[in-house]
Specification:
The chain has 9 helices and 8 strands. It is an alpha/beta fold. The strands form 2 sheets. It has a 6-stranded parallel β-sheet, covered by helices on one side. Strands 7-8 form a two-stranded parallel ribbon.
């Protein structure tokens, strides 16, 4: 899944795709590199970020979704707002990728009625405060329990299991030790019975391991994506599509 952030302030590539034209150019480049999905975001969720209003988020993403909807690669929209979800699905989005796991009032109902898939992510707190001393007794068990509860809620709202994906939320209300523990035991999420999506690309946890700034975390990101895939991730959400695809191609050639 290739990332297209139509934002001025995302942690790694803020401003790179801030206009519709630049976002579309970047999206086409990711398709050419082999992206199977495109994830379009109009609001940064980096630690400390502040929300944007509905109108601004719609202005940023809907023209991009409409333009990409007919290009043969399914489009996911990264949003927490039911109003944006509804408009995105109408514009052609195949999946809603929600860091808030469809907990906003009305979100479950919008996705259920719209027929799109949904990715439910774990986050402790919210982007503006999530990295202020997050606490867990057993991070893997607690994240897994939360995701099971959200899967149950989604199905109760009428979203079939075949439309659901989960994401443990690396970097979203987790300290370094929590992120490492989640990656180490990622295979424990497989028995939830739905596809697992992982977003590790260029994240701060990789910077802490390597000492590199976000733009210089390509090699670490590819290693993390490959490791996640070996532990059951069915979708890896990445900035560097070609590098990741090449690494996965070598792995798949050896392991079938």
């Amino acid at each position: 899944m290739g990332i297209v952030n139509v934002t001025p302030d995302s942690f790694s590539d803020g401003g790179l795709c801030a206009s519709t034209e630049s976002a579309l150019r970047h999206a086409v480049r990711l398709i050419e590199q082999g992206a199977d999905w495109l994830d379009i975001g109009g609001e940064s969720t980096r630690p400390g970020s502040m929300p944007v209003d509905v109108e601004e988020e719609l202005r940023r993403i809907i023209p991009v979704v409409e333009a990409l909807a007919g290009m043969g690669v399914p489009v996911s929209v990264d949003t927490t707002k039911p109003e944006v979800m509804r408009a995105a699905i109408k514009a052609g989005a195949a999946m809603i990728n929600d860091v808030n796991a469809l907990r906003s009032p009305g979100a479950l109902e919008v996705v259920a009625a719209g027929g799109a898939a949904a990715c439910l992510m774990h986050m402790q707190g919210e982007p503006r405060n999530m990295q202020i001393n997050p606490q867990y007794d057993d991070v893997v068990a607690e994240v897994k329990e939360f995701l099971q509860q959200r899967l149950d809620a989604a199905q109760a709202a009428g979203i079939t299991r075949e439309r659901l994906v989960i994401d443990p939320g690396f970097g979203f209300g987790k300290m370094q030790e929590h992120n490492i523990e989640l990656l180490r035991h990622l295979d424990r999420f497989s028995d939830l019975g739905v596809p697992l999506m992982v977003g590790l690309s260029r994240k701060a946890m990789l910077g802490k391991i390597t000492g590199n700034e976000a733009a210089d975390r390509v090699h670490a990101s590819v290693a993390a994506a490959l490791l996640a895939a070996t532990k059951g991730a069915g979708i890896v959400r990445v900035h560097d599509v070609k590098a990741t695809r090449d690494a996965l191609a070598v792995y798949n050639a050896v392991n079938g």
